[in-house]
Amino acid sequence: MAVYEHLYRAYEGEQHTAWSRFLVIPRYALREVFKSKIFTTIFILCFIYPLVAAILVYLHHNVNALALLQINVRELLPIDASFFRTFIEVQGAFAFILTVIVAPPLISRDLANNALPLYLCRPLSRTEYVLGKMAVVVFLLSLITWVPGLLIFLFQASLGGFAWLWANLWMVGAIFLGSLVWIVLLALIALAVSAVLKWRVVASGAMVGLFMVPSAFGEIINELFLTRSGHLISLWVTMNSIWRGLFGLFERRVGNVRGTVTNPIYDEQFFDIVLMEPPLWASGLIIAFVCGVCVWLLARKVRAYEVIG
Amino acid sequence: MTSVIELEQLSVTFGKRPILRELDGALNGRAIGLLGPNGAGKTTLIHTLLGFHPPTSGTARIFGQDITRDAKQVRSGVGYMPERDSFIAKMSCVHFVRLMAELSGIPADHALERAHEALFYVGLGEARYRPVDSYSLGMKQLAKLAQAIVHGPKLIILDEPTNGLDPPTRNRMISLIRQIRDGGRARILLSSHLLRDVEECCDEILVLNDGYIAANCNLEEERKANRKFIELETRGGNRVAFVEAIGALGCDYALLGERRVKVIMQEAVEISDLYRLAHDNEVQIRRLNFKRDSLEDIFLKAMETTDGRATDGRL
Predict the structure, then answer these.
(1) Of residues A174, A173, A170, A168, the one with CA closest to residue A79
(2) How crowded is residue A296: how many other Cβ atoms within 10 Å of its Cβ?
(3) Which of A5, A161, A191, B209 is an S-S bond match for B308, by CB 3.0 to 4.6 Å?
């Protein structure tokens, strides 16, 4: 099949290792993603907060700089678990925005153009196909969440000394695990939406709706029934609870509501309701359930051809 | 020698609806034509061979490798050109074909070279930097062929490759398929509604009807077998004496109407013998046809079987 000979010939050269073949998918997809100027701009903006965080860490350890800027060190945010939890929360929000931009066309475009048979007729399983698409999201979100998070942690450790590192080493796990759970959740939801809806705009809208609508509904439940159980249907709050749990900042009791009710028989009665956040295990269960539903949807939808029995 | 495709009691059911029913047989041709009316199970058979649908019972082997157990090895050696428009949007054709080559296991630099070669081979060399979604139907078909052959598979599965093509593009497609077949480096499984395409490209056919194998025969052998079947149109002379003389040579014959004679020739009998006997009996041979079953005859005979099953598995 040489260009000048125009003959068909078999390929007899070396081959990729079978396990790494799915990585071809993110390589091509990332090339496409970075062709978009809007995406590239937003991606760069995602590094502003890590930069600010790094500057804060630097200022904490540089007396000259503090003096120059006339800032008291006590006015700065302390570099502790709360600092890193805030970092993960802020970067988590950026991760959501990136996912809404990048993920919806990943599978929907292949479905719309009947490209799945072309992938799946090759030595690539359905699982590997989904992993390849997921790798696009995981790679991009990792670059803005746990990778800069750990770099800032190392930066602080290098300035704070061995004692600080030893006392806070557990935070490495919290930063990595907290980011990873969020990344996997976002990636699975986005891919499931992409597999169900063929139109990019609709898929992006559905992705935003899935996070916003239940959150709003949850708040209505909380207000009506004087509870915090409504947070269980809000993925934002559920994830926040997990982050707080990982950084040792989770408290179930978040306050109480005091008031009076007027009863015609017993006159005025006081009530005092303690507001309790759902337990951490319930939040974990919700996240696992949502991930399970997404995997089930992907297993149903990612097929070379849909069979109507 | 290992068969190209072996079917072993292969059944596929969707819900409660059987689509393929206990298919058995071995296909060995250089180019195998897969024929059958709509809903016969052709596409399902192809999809099952590619591992898109799991067999309900039985199995199949491609070059001796089980389609279920060795699915990845099977797919490494197979190229597939789907029937419907299939491509990756917003990608130039050369990148599309390169991606397909890489997914088949070819390293990136070799894949790029192979993609260029494949596109030149199918005749899309000049248009290879254009996005596939901007191609005409004919060009998309050729791009699909390029992605099916880019990794140099041992078996190329073509599902309706000439669908919707204008005559020149169809001829180009048929000529490419024949070139690949004659090159001998890859076997072809060609599914088509167009008997002409199959007749021009294939040397073996598998006819499916209602999920059963209605016929499985080697076209070359059929043609050879029927080469000795001759139809004569005669005028004048002693026609009865003429056919009796043919019978005396050991050939079977049949009189059709007043002028036509059907003769099944024997090994030792030559055409010149017929002319000699005609001359001896003052019979004029106005027309002499080597009659053979056309693919259409074979196909129609296969369709005549009541439940789709061939009586003895072969025609």
Answers:
(1) A168
(2) 11
(3) B209
* Nearest CB to B103 within list A24, A303, A309: A24
* A153 falls within a domain: yes
pLDDT at A6 over 70: no
In a domain, A255, yes or no: yes
Torsion of CA B61, B161, B201, B303, to 10 degrees: 70
User: Which ranges in chain B belong to alpha helices (H)?
Assistant: 42-49, 71-76, 93-103, 108-122, 137-149, 167-183, 195-201, 219-226, 239-248, 271-280, 295-304
For residue B194, the distance in angstroms to the closest alpha carbon of chain A comes to: 23
Cα distance from A275 to chain B (closest Cα, Å)?
51
Q: Is residue A275 part of a domain?
A: yes
Closest CB from A1, A12, A308 relative to B117: A1
Pick B103's closest partner by Cβ from A8, A32, A122. A122
Cα A129 to Cα A124: distance, rounded to the nearest angstrom: 7
Is A171 in contact with A81 (CB distance < 8 Å)?
A: yes
Q: Domain residues for A216? A: 19-301
Contact A121 B80 (CB under 8 A): yes
Query: Which residues belong to CATH 3.40.50.300 in chain B?
Result: 5-223+299-304
Answer whether A11 sits within 8 Å of B151, measured CB to CB: yes
Is residue A308 in a domain? Answer: no
Cβ neighbourhood burial of A268 (10 Å; 0-12, 13-18, 19+): exposed
B14:A308 CB<8 A:
yes
| Chain A: residue whose CA lies nearest to B117 | A3
Q: What is the pTM of this model?
A: 0.84
Interface probe for B, chosen from A31, A109, A118, A124 (most Cβ of B below 10 Å), is: A118
Please answer yes or no on whether A121 and B50 come within 8 Å at the CB atom. yes
Closest alpha carbon within chain B to A23: B103
Joined tokens for residue A243:
């982050």
Distance, in angstroms, between B181 CA and closest chain A CA? 10
Q: How many domains does chain A have?
A: 1
Across B97-107, b (16+ Cβ under 10 Å) vs e yields bbbbbbbbbbe
The CATH fold of domain B228-290: Alpha-Beta Plaits (3.30.70)
| Joined tokens for residue B228 | 């000795």
Instruction: List where CATH 3.30.70.100 sits in chain B.
Output: 228-290
pLDDT tens profile A178-214: 999 999 999 999 999 999 998 888 999 999 999 999 9
Q: Which value does ipTM take for this structure?
A: 0.84
3-class SS shares of chain B: helix, strand, coil, % to 5: 40, 30, 35
* Average pLDDT of adjacent 10-residue blocks, chain B of 315 residues: 91 91 93 90 94 94 94 93 89 94 92 93 90 91 94 94 89 92 91 88 91 87 69 88 89 82 82 90 88 70 60 40
Domain B5-223+299-304 has CATH 3.90.950.20: no
Residue B24's φ and ψ, nearest 5 degrees, are: -135, 140
